[in-house]
């Protein structure tokens, strides 16, 4: 059992960037609260992480549902777990022209990407303030910096996450609590399949996709250094730098060409 009593809570912890982040926390001796929708996927990860000698608590919650986000907070409290690091990683998108996409699915994505992030951050930041210690990592995206034709709702939610993170960071600047935004680009995860986005030009070249382990490492190091945000990958850094210069209508047209169907 780990001598480190610190717990990191990670949503979306069974795959992709969340899974790679959980591995980094376990490697450094953090106990884990891993959260995902499917109990069977969580159980296989519990066995894996426990082999590193840390305590692992698995909680199955569907964070597309706001009530389950509140229930997650209640369950962590009822177990007497102090969350020292919160990682709001769970997120999803939907691909297509806004006129064609399903509004109920988009509202569910807003609840996952925005509402659940607000609920968990509100709950745990209050506890962190009470003891004046803690760290939070929020998964934004380079999508947060540009308008997003073909993924307008997803880009909008990630713009919220970035702005939300920066706003709270300013509020907390006189405390010992840090909040960091991680901005990956196109990463080799299950995101694109879940978003029905496999036909998009943006993901046709698999060589251009980042390794989720590399993205997680960038986020983990920025979190531990207390940075405000980190753009993962040189190409993405260049893209964000350009987005600070070019007018939004130009960026929107560029993004539309990048994300439209390849056929």
UniProtKB/TrEMBL annotation:
Concerning InterPro entries, the annotation shows: NAD(P)-bd_dom_sf, SDR_fam
Extract one GO cellular component term from the record.
membrane
Q: One GO molecular function term? A: oxidoreductase activity
Give one Pfam hit by family name: adh_short
The record's keywords, sorted A to Z, are: Oxidoreductase
What domain of life does the native source organism fall in? Bacteria
The cross-references to CDD domains, in alphabetical order and at most eight, read:
SDR_c
Task: State the family named in the UniProt similarity comment for this chain.
Answer: Belongs to the short-chain dehydrogenases/reductases (SDR) family.
Q: Which PANTHER family match?
A: DEHYDROGENASE/REDUCTASE SDR FAMILY MEMBER 7B, SHORT-CHAIN DEHYDROGENASE-RELATED
The name on file for this protein is Oxidoreductase
Q: Which organism is it from?
A: Flavobacterium album
Please spell out the taxonomic lineage of the organism that makes this protein. Bacteria, Pseudomonadati, Bacteroidota, Flavobacteriia, Flavobacteriales
């Amino acid at each position: 059992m780990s001598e480190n009593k610190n717990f990191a809570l990670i949503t979306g912890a069974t795959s992709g960037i969340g899974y790679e982040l959980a591995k980094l926390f376990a490697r450094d001796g953090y106990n884990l609260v891993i959260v995902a929708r499917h109990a069977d996927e969580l159980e296989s990860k519990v066995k894996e992480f426990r082999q590193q000698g840390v305590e692992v608590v698995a909680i199955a919650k569907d964070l597309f549902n706001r009530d389950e986000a509140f229930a997650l907070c209640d369950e962590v409290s009822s177990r007497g777990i102090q969350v020292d690091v919160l990682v709001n990683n769970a997120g999803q998108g939907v691909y297509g022209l806004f006129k064609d996409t399903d509004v109920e699915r988009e509202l569910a994505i807003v609840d996952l990407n925005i509402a659940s992030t607000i609920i968990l951050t509100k709950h745990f930041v209050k506890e962190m303030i009470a003891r004046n210690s803690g760290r939070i990592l929020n998964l934004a995206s380079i999508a947060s910096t540009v308008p997003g034709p073909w993924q307008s709702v997803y880009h909008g939610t990630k713009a919220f996450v970035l702005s939300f993170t920066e706003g709270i960071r300013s509020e907390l600047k006189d405390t010992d609590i840090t909040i960091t935004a991680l901005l990956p680009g196109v990463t080799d995860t299950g995101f694109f399949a879940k978003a029905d986005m496999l036909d998009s030009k943006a993901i046709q070249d698999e060589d251009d996709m980042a390794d989720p382990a590399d993205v997680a490492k960038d986020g983990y190091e920025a979190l531990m250094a207390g940075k405000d945000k980190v753009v993962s990958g040189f190409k993405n850094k260049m893209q964000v730098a350009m987005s600070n210069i070019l007018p939004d209508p130009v960026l929107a047209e560029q993004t539309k060409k990048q994300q439209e169907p390849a056929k």
